[in-house]
Amino acid sequence: MNEEPIHRLYLHFQELPLSLRVLYTGTLFVLSVGYLFAIFHIYNSHAGRDGDAMLSPQDLVIAYGGSDLATQLETALKGPMAGYRRKSVRS
C-alpha cells in the first residue's frame, strides 16, 4: 500500500483497515437487499390498480390517496362492512 494518503482531509476506502471495509461493505449489502425487497413488495401489492399491468404513480395514488367522493368510513360501510350494518338507522 502507498504510505502517502490519497487525500489529506479524509481516509479513502482503500486506506481503512480490513475490518472496517468488511463492516461498510456488509452494511451497504444489507441495506441494498432491504431496498430491493421493498421495491418488490410495492410492485406486488400495488401494480395493476389503475388497469395497467405495470406499476405507475397512479397505482400509488389509488392505493394511498383514497377517494375524494367518499370518506374512509363511507367506503368501508359500502364495501366489505356492508353486511354488518343495520338496514334501518334510528336517529
Can you offer a commentary on this structure?
By secondary structure, the chain is mostly helical. It has one domain. 49% of the residues lie in helices and 0% in strands. It has three helices and no strands. The radius of gyration is 26 Å and the shape is rod-shaped. It starts with 17 loop residues before the first helix and ends in a 13-residue tail after the last helix. The relative contact order is 0.06.
Helix/strand layout:
Layout: H1 18-46, H2 57-65, H3 72-78
Q: What is the 3D shape?
A: rod-shaped
Query: How much helical structure, as a percent, in the residues?
Result: 40-55%
CA distance, first residue to last residue: 84 Å
Low-confidence stretches: none
Radius of gyration: 26 Å
Compute the average pLDDT: 82
Class per helix and strand makeup: mainly alpha
Could you say how many structural domains there are in total?
Answer: 1
Give a quick set of tags describing it.
single chain; 91 residues; mainly alpha; rod-shaped
Summary of the model, kept short:
The chain is mainly alpha-helical. It contains 3 helices and no strands. It has one domain.
